[in-house]
Amino acid sequence: MTPAAPQRPILLNAFDMMVPVHQSPGLWRHPESRADEFDTLEYWTSLASTLDDAGFSSLFLADVLGVYDVYGAGPAGAYRGGVQYPLLDPLSAVSAMAAVTNHLGFGVTASVSYEHPFLLARRLSSLDHLTKGRLAWNIVTSYQDSAARNMGLAQQIPHDARYDRADEYMDVMYSLFESSFEEGAVLADRTNATFLDATKVHPINHSGEFFTVPGAALTHPGPQRTPFLFQAGASPRGQQFALDHAEAIFVTGSSPRLVRHWVDQIRNGLEARGRDRYAIKIFAMVTIVVADTDDEAQQRLDSYAQYVDTESALTLFGGWTGVDLAGTDPDSPIEYVTTEANRSALESMTKLAGAKTWTVRDLAEFVAIGGRGPVLIGSASTVADELVRWQTEADLDGFNVSAAVRPADLQRVAHYLTPELKRRGLLLQRPDTPTTLRETMTGAKAHLAADHQGARFRRS
Amino acid sequence: MTPAAPQRPILLNAFDMMVPVHQSPGLWRHPESRADEFDTLEYWTSLASTLDDAGFSSLFLADVLGVYDVYGAGPAGAYRGGVQYPLLDPLSAVSAMAAVTNHLGFGVTASVSYEHPFLLARRLSSLDHLTKGRLAWNIVTSYQDSAARNMGLAQQIPHDARYDRADEYMDVMYSLFESSFEEGAVLADRTNATFLDATKVHPINHSGEFFTVPGAALTHPGPQRTPFLFQAGASPRGQQFALDHAEAIFVTGSSPRLVRHWVDQIRNGLEARGRDRYAIKIFAMVTIVVADTDDEAQQRLDSYAQYVDTESALTLFGGWTGVDLAGTDPDSPIEYVTTEANRSALESMTKLAGAKTWTVRDLAEFVAIGGRGPVLIGSASTVADELVRWQTEADLDGFNVSAAVRPADLQRVAHYLTPELKRRGLLLQRPDTPTTLRETMTGAKAHLAADHQGARFRRS
């Protein structure tokens, strides 16, 4: 293991989803929860404004394109429990949130499996323009058979082939973002009646195994050109994809030791590619329950237990792993059923469990608050200490902060924790003048770093 | 011809596009133009707010998915002139505009040719939720070969087959919007831990010639269920499609007499289907130049001539008709070259021209301000008189108002004309309490009318 890195500024990314239940099944029933207002603009503009004022770097919106229908071999559990369903388009509220914020970035999930790159590139560039360069794209390949079926496929594209196709997809996207419009192509020159310099707009002439896109992008690139790139692939092939493309990676693990394992893999992978170990920002998922004192925070967490929804927790687990635990004895140990499709998810769960033999009940309780990640509990000072410990021990850049009671637990982070982090000088200080998300996140330029493979698509 | 209908309230729909040049090529160079800010949020929130205050019913955003590359056999003319290019995603600013308005509806163009219905349904439902039921969908089948090529097709789907496929597409959309979630499916019942009543969420089991979508919609339907439906098909097959699906239809013609021809076809078509002649709202496109006096308005229009861009006008014409007039003598008469692909567009141009033999120059000048539609010029009183004449002679419900200088000419309509229309009691009065767009437009209920074919998909 490499030595612990020196303290770096902590980046905070809020982790949410336009659904009734994101990572903490059942907690939508808490009296303070407003999760059932997930389909209103007010929920999102209010949350964005709070996060912006508090000093968060970004709000990341997850997405799936199918219903969790493994548990009980049908969608009824997901329907009843509102488990990541129904779910709105994560791009839909971005412009409204941008209008009420100055610094906050918006990480939207969009699948390379079901959206055509020519149209997705325009959708992302449009939001990068409207947010003045505050857009991040969380690249996913989608993992649910239910999604594939609704897109007219008999089943999903096999796991590794999805990533091969995704690599070509990224080539198309880089071509559209980086090479289609040269710098200076947009003149808007009234005197000479020239909106674009036609010599600086280029067809990308992409003709590959999966995609044929001859033309130029439908729109000029936004302030970042390629939006800031998020990824969360955990499988070996997914991790290779992330190393090739991501500028920020999300990891999940119940202890700093487990997370460190993945962080080292990523940082070593970067070095093996001749890049800086810290060229990719790494965020670990945490759920935070913070209050005036440690006791109050613990009491608050204890009070959550009555809202936990075990069936919903197993519905989430089923969707993530492909393993249906419906009808099992809650006290029976889990026997992992490994198939090609669910191998990577199961491996990460096995690592989370460590040497311990878990029962179905243990598992449900573990997943029920904060999904697969840890819950940090305490006063602002205690949680700040915990974040520093996690950051140091796991060599992290930041945290993907999820709320158990939505949005209350994120509002409480803004109220209690971020002032404490600022007092200690731990929170990443954003530039005074609003800037692009890439600049905020990396301190470097608005465009892809020169050693990022997307930069190869640039015209010299 | 049926007799002129009695005066009905006038509906105003602003007609714009997220581009430098929409319908008036070259006018982006006018000193008052802010069209080159089309990629900023402020342009759109400011315009939406103005329209909302002025009493417009909706803002309609056009879209195309390719570049106008017929003129000069390449895209250079469209690039130089900013002719409907570059162009942002018309859905991208809707939530921001919704946040600063109370009544205004948002008509977004989305193609049934290149977006999968399962994903488009979610995108539209998401915006219908966030706008509280103020979304309209302008259904297009797309008409450019350049778009088809960028989506990986050798050429577009043939015209009539596009509409057959579009009909099935609509079946999928109605199923997702109308039948997937029964009324009362969303309970959000905290006491009984039931977010959705699982017995009221249904897979749509669509299996057709073009699409297979077994599952339920990804999200619950918005306040209108099916968004209010716009259409503008002008060909015989397109008009049949519009009669089957549209709740509002856009028509374009240079005189009330020409427009009346199409309006009668639509209203007769409705009667032939056993529906009310006025079941579909019909809007005619107009460009309005209004000022304190008739003279000032005329002077203003005259001053526009210096900004007209002839090449850009012929670029638009080429895209609409498939006819390349590059290199022709400006004073030579136009010889219409009719092919299957451009027949309908040419027919409508021929009708516009009437008996007159047009030169290329005439054509360019005609298209250069206001595209294929008329320009109404004068004081508020004069323009109001003109609108009443148009409405009466052409049996219209409203107007699709386009700006030559953007957004100045729409701001001037808000400043001069809508107060005059209100004084005369001509402008449709919106309900005091904000409501859905369908209720605003039709005075009826939030959901599709019982005799609309989408209503057949409802569960009893």
Give a verbal description of the structure.
2 copies of one chain form a homodimer. By secondary structure, chain A is α/β, with parallel strands linked by helices. In chain A, 38% of the residues lie in helices and 14% in strands. The first copy, chain A, has 15 helices and 13 strands. In chain A, strands 1-2-3-4-9-10-11-13 form an 8-stranded parallel β-barrel, surrounded by 6 helices. In chain A, α6 packs parallel to α7 and α8 packs across α13. The first copy, chain A, is globular and about 70 Å long. The first copy, chain A, starts with 10 loop residues before the first strand and ends in an 18-residue tail after the last helix. The N terminus of chain A is likely disordered. At the A-B interface, α2, α3, α4, α5 and β6 of A face α2, α3, α4, α5 and β6 of B.
Task: Supply the key terms.
homodimer; 460 residues; two-stranded antiparallel sheet; 15 helices; disordered N terminus
Question: What are the segments of chain A in which pLDDT stays under 50 over at least 5 consecutive residues?
Answer: 1-5, 337-344
Strand order of the largest sheet of chain A: 1-2-3-4-9-10-11-13
Rg from alpha-carbon coordinates of chain A: 22 Å
Number of strands of chain A: 13
Largest sheet of chain A, described in full?
8 strands, parallel, barrel
Spatial shape of chain A = globular
SSE succession of chain A: EHEHHEHEHHEEEEEHEHEHHHHEHEHH
Mean pLDDT across residues of chain A: 90
How far apart lie the N and C ends of chain A? 40 Å
Largest Cβ-defined interface: A-B, 75 and 75 residues
Report the helical percentage of chain A: 25-40%
Oligomer: homodimer
Structural class of chain A: alpha/beta
The total count of helices of chain A amounts to 15
Amount of beta strand of chain A: 5-15%
